Sequence to fold (270 residues):
Amino acid sequence: MAPLVVPSCPTITHQLGTDMTRTVLFLLLTCASAGRSDLVTSSLVTNALQASLDTGTLAGTRFSVSFSYDSSQVQPVGESYVQLNSFDFTLLGVPFTRQDIFQGGQVIFHDGVITDVTASFQVILPPNSPVQNITFGFGGPGVIGYIDLDGQFGSGSFLTGNMRVHLGTIVSIRRVGSSDALGGQPGIEIQLFSDDEFPVRDEIMVLQIGARQFFLSGYPNGDLNTVVFTLTEEEFAAVSCGEPVIVQYGIAPSDEVWQFGNLDKTILDQ
Fold:
């Protein structure tokens, strides 16, 4: 009978070591390849929300939200839930950021189209926050809920999409003793200019300073690059230096705005 030959332990160990080395090398190459693929396909997209608080003690407050996400994570078909890279807005002078989000923090897509954005700010809030809670998207697509500092509930809404922003300047702010727009009463005229025309539309043109909106406007000499809004003296007294100045069409949040920086009352009659 032929003797039974048993492989020595060094032979088995050598074979296992060779197989393991090949496996580890394969995994490392696969991970490296995946990492390079992520770097190639990653695409950071910045978008905007136009938000409006419609009920409660902060009713009439409007603000814009800038947010970003990695579009390479969006599937062309079906639902996609993509983490927010940033989410920035200022509410009544207080800045909120992605780092302040307590719950949520996702952009939701259906067939590659944004349907909702979720972000809830509560418990741990920025210093001097004007609310105890403000939550986007949890009550349904485009829905805002908030709780003010007295514990009163309010609601609002937001629009998603690529916002078109035009830039402009505040040319002058002057007091007039008799305004045709005010039926001969004294008032304040704010003249605005933009290289991008203010087109004539079926919607009313709206001046928004902070949370307040004003509607009396006209084109001096028919120049579509210049518009003059007229406020009563009481209306002008109610707005504050430093509040953002924008123009849009319609009273609801819009995906197209003209921005003029912050209000500077010291230029009155200069």
Notes: The helical segments are 9-41, 233-238.
